[in-house]
């Protein structure tokens, strides 16, 4: 499924692999991602994003934005409350806006 919007982003289904976003998004759940959303929009705190893992470029991760720096980089965290339940910016640091592929849409957004 794909749809075009005025800001040149497309929605694509993404299957979640892992528990880092539990309980918001569960392992195996399908979510929709607005690819290209941040080409014309600034990231905001509390948005959930799909991005390129900063240390493993072939890996894609889904995390929540918890901080936006003045230079546009973001701090990402998983929702899983287990201290070892998510590999996020605590481990890999700030993420450049260019590494964000899109915004994740869930039913509460």
Architecture overview:
This protein is globular. A hairpin with a 7-residue loop joins strand 3 and strand 4 (60-68). By secondary structure, it is mainly beta. Residues 1-6 have low confidence and may be disordered. It has one helix spanning 89-92, and strands at residues 10-15, 30-35, 48-52, 60-68, 74-77, 100-105. Strands 1-2-6-3-4-5 form a 6-stranded antiparallel β-sheet, with no helix packed on it.
Can you tag this structure with a few keywords?
Umud Fragment, subunit A, mainly beta, 6 strands, globular, 33% strand, six-stranded antiparallel sheet, disordered N terminus
Q: How many strands, what sense, and barrel or not for the largest sheet?
A: 6 strands, antiparallel
Helix content: under 10%
| CATH hierarchy: architecture | Ribbon
Order of helices and strands: EEEEEHE
The rounded Rg comes to 13 Å
Q: How many beta-strand elements?
A: 6
- The overall pLDDT, averaged over residues, is 91
Low-confidence stretches: 1-6
Number of helices: 1
Question: Strand share of the residues?
Answer: 25-35%
The span between the termini is: 19 Å
The fold-level CATH name is Umud Fragment, subunit A
Q: Return the domain count.
A: 1
**Which class in CATH terms?**
Mainly Beta
CATH homologous superfamily grouping: Umud Fragment, subunit A
